[in-house]
Design a protein that fits this description.
Elements (H helix, E strand, L loop, with lengths): L20 H10 L3 E5 L3 H10 L3 E4 L3 H4 L11 H14 L4 E5 L9 H15 L3 E3 L5 H11 L4 E6 L18 H16 L4 E5 L3 H8 L6 E4 L7 E4 L1 H4 L17 H17 L14 H12 L1 H10 L5
Parallel strand pairs: 1-2, 1-8, 2-3, 3-4, 4-5, 5-6, 6-7, 7-8
Helix pairs in contact: 2-4, 4-5, 5-6
Bound molecules: 3-methyl-2-oxobutanoic acid (KIV).
The site of 3-methyl-2-oxobutanoic acid has 11 residues, from loops.
Length: 311
C-alpha cells in the first residue's frame, strides 16, 4: 500500500462503547479481564482499536522500543506529546493513558499538575500514569485533585530502576512485598483509579490484590490481577534480543518485516520491481507530443548554452 492510500480500519463493533473508568470497575467486579497494551503511533493505535483492547497506554517504554534509547529515562515530554497525538488519531474506543516521563512530575505538585494538563490537552489522553510510591503519592493526589484521573505504577518502576538495583523482580522478600502493598494502598488512598504492578511474584500479587478496591493491571505480576498489560513491540516480536520473563510473543513481526524488506531489496537490484502493475500509464498521443518536444535540437543546445556554473 502506498503512503498516499487510506488504510482499512474495521469500525469498532457498534455495541462497543468508549471505555470509561466506571466500566473498568464494572469489569473488575464482574471478573472480566481488562486488556491493556501500549501504543506509540497511529498504526499501533489502530491495531489496538481493531483488536478490541480496553486501555491503551502511550508508555514511556517508547524511549526504548521506538526511539532506541537504552532506558526510559531520556524520553522528553515533547517526545511523549508527539507520540500521544499520533496515538489519539488512531483510537476511538479504548481509554487512553498518557505516561508521565521522568522529570515531568517528581520535583513539585505544580510541575506534576502542569505536565499532566499538558499531556491531556495536547495529546487528548483521558488519564495519566506516573511511577512509584513515596513522593509520587503526593504528586498523584495533586493531579487527581486538579481533575485528571491517575493510574499508579508499583513494583518495578523503570524510571527509578537504578535505585531498585536494576530491572529486577520486586517484592521477593516480605519487606519488599510490604512496600509494594503500602505503595499501592497509598496510591489508592489519594484517588488513583487503577494501579500497574510490574515484575512482582505471582503469589505476592495474589496476596495483595484482595486488599485493593481499584483494578490492578499486571505486567509480570501473575494471573490474579484484574487485567494484563504488555508492550506492543514485545508481544508482536518487533523488539529483538533478550526479553523479560513475563513477555509472551504472539507474532514475529520483526522477522516478517526483515523478510519483506529483503525481498524488496532483491527485486529492486534484480530489476524485478516495479512490475507492470505498479506503473502509471499515459495516453500515446501525449507521449508522442512529449517526444517531439524532447527531440528538438534547439532544446538541448539552448539548455547547454544557458547553463552557468554557480559562483
Ligand atoms: O511505559 C510502559 O510501557 C509501562 C508499561 C510497562 C506498564 O509503563
Amino acid at each position: 500500500m502506498s503512503s498516499g492510500a487510506r488504510s482499512h480500519t474495521a469500525p469498532p463493533s457498534p455495541d462497543r462503547k468508549p471505555v470509561s473508568i466506571p466500566r473498568l470497575n464494572e469489569m473488575k467486579a464482574a471478573g472480566e479481564p481488562i486488556v491493556m497494551v501500549t501504543a506509540y503511533d497511529y498504526p499501533s493505535a489502530q491495531v489496538a482499536e481493531e483488536a478490541g483492547v480496553d486501555i491503551v497506554l502511550v508508555g514511556d517504554t517508547a524511549a526504548m522500543v521506538v526511539l532506541g534509547y537504552p532506558g526510559t529515562e531520556p524520553v522528553s515530554m515533547d517526545e511523549m506529546v508527539m507520540l500521544g497525538k499520533a496515538v489519539r488519531r488512531g483510537l476511538q474506543t479504548p481509554l487512553m493513558v498518557g505516561d508521565m516521563p521522568m522529570g515531568s512530575y517528581e520535583s513539585s505538585n505544580e510541575l506534576a499538575v502542569q505536565s499532566a494538563q499538558r499531556l491531556v490537552k495536547e495529546t487528548g489522553c483521558q488519564v495519566v500514569k506516573l511511577e512509584a510510591g513515596g513522593t509520587s503519592v503526593e504528586r498523584a493526589r495533586a493531579i487527581v485533585n486538579s481533575g485528571i484521573p491517575v493510574m499508579g505504577h508499583v513494583g518495578l518502576t523503570p524510571q527509578t530502576a537504578t535505585a531498585l538495583g536494576g530491572y529486577k523482580t520486586q517484592g521477593k522478600t516480605a519487606r519488599d512485598a510490604i512496600k509494594v502493598c503500602e505503595d499501592a494502598l497509598a496510591l489508592q488512598a489519594v484517588g488513583c483509579f487503577a494501579i500497574v504492578f510490574e515484575a512482582v511474584p505471582a503469589a505476592v500479587t495474589e496476596a495483595i490484590v484482595g486488599k485493593l478496591e481499584v483494578p490492578v493491571i499486571g505486567i509480570g505480576a501473575g494471573p490474579a490481577t484484574a487485567g494484563q498489560v504488555l508492550v506492543f513491540h514485545d508481544l508482536l516480536g518487533i523488539t529483538t534480543g533478550r526479553m523479560a520473563k513475563f513477555v509472551k510473543r504472539y507474532a514475529d513481526v520483526h522477522d516478517e518485516m526483515v523478510r519483506g524488506v529483503s525481498r524488496y531489496v532483491d527485486e529492486v537490484r534484480s530489476r524485478h520491481f516495479p512490475e507492470p502493475d505498479h506503473v502509471y500509464g499515459v495516453e500515446p498521443a501525449e507521449l508522442d507530443e512529449l517526444r517531439r518536444y524532447l527531440d528538438q535540437e534547439s532544446l538541448t543546445s539552448q539548455k547547454a548554452w544557458d547553463w552557468e556554473p554557480l559562483p
